[in-house]
Amino acid sequence: MIDEHFAGGTSPIHALDPRYRLAACLLLSLVAALARTPQTPLLILGAGLVLTVLSGVSAKLVLRRAAAVNLFIIFLWLFLPVSTPGMPLWQGLGLTVTREGVALAGLVTLKANAVFLCVLSLMGTIPAPALGRALTALGAPAKFSFLFVFTYRYLHVIAEEYGRLVTAARLRGFVPATDGRTYRTYAALVAMVLVRSYDRSQRVYQAMLLRGFTGVFPCLDRFAAGRRDVLFLGCVVALAAGAVWIEWLAGRGNV
Predict the structure, then answer these.
(1) Do β-strands 88-92 and 95-98 pair in parallel, antiparallel, or remain unpaired?
(2) pLDDT in tens, 35-67
(3) Concatenated DSSP letters for 91-149?
(4) Cα(186)–Cα(193) distance, rounded to whole angstroms?
(5) Maximum CA extent, the chain
(6) For the whole model, what pTM was predicted?
(7) CB-CB contact of 126 with 18 (8 Å)
């Protein structure tokens, strides 16, 4: 997302107002994250799949990002089934796999993938500057939005600076290894990146003050919501309400 691979496009999702997309993403992600039964995240996972298809993003990139997310989930499958107390499903090698552990790992998997698809299709398709303004429009503190925009802008600059330092070290004969010299070299590289980043931040701040910065970014673009945006958010609210209702029924044992 930080490289904005999905921000450019002409899909129906890209045409929606960023504020409404952000609100919808937060609502669906919150409902999925707080779910205690698998029915709710499964429903939102299906909605996330539909939104991802409508956004027209590259299936190859989506699968690559999904693989990175689920790489961490694999570790949960290795530990949760044998560390969660409950009814045994399998015993061997001194380990006991419980039904509750498997259910918990499955629930976490559904939640993670549901939130991932919602964030990718709704937030990942918003350019970073527009996302910052959408955060402010939804009530986030202006300083938080500034911090987000500046972090996005200068994260690439810091990465390039680190790359130049690593290249300079290799030209001087540095070969990474698992020894104290390597650790000291990398510590020095990180320290130099921090020092240069701080120095750059001071220069940027002075340049902004000289250009009359008063804490507000002037922007020529204006958000313009229409009936399509209202209808989209209404459908998302209805879906979230339905998911909460299903969660309530499942909690009572009626689903």
Answers:
(1) antiparallel
(2) 888 889 999 999 999 999 998 888 888 888 889
(3) EETTEEEEHHHHHHHHHHHHHHHHHHHHIIIIITTS-HHHHHHHHHHTT--HHHHHHHH
(4) 11
(5) 70
(6) 0.79
(7) yes
Q: Where are the alpha helices (DSSP H) in 34-98?
A: 39-55, 59-83
Distances (CA, A) of 67 to 33, 63, 83: 20, 6, 25
| pLDDT tens-digit readout, 179-236 | 888 888 889 888 988 888 888 888 888 888 888 877 666 666 677 778 888 999 999 9
Amino acid identity at 224: A
Structure tokens at 208: 């902004």
* Token pair for 155: 């994260």
CA distance 119 to 110: 14
Give the per-residue pLDDT at 1: 46
Please check whether residue 76 is in contact with residue 101, taking contact to mean a CB–CB distance below 8 angstroms.
Answer: no
Type and span of the H or E element at 97: strand 95-98
* Domain ranges for the chain: 18-126+225-251, 140-210
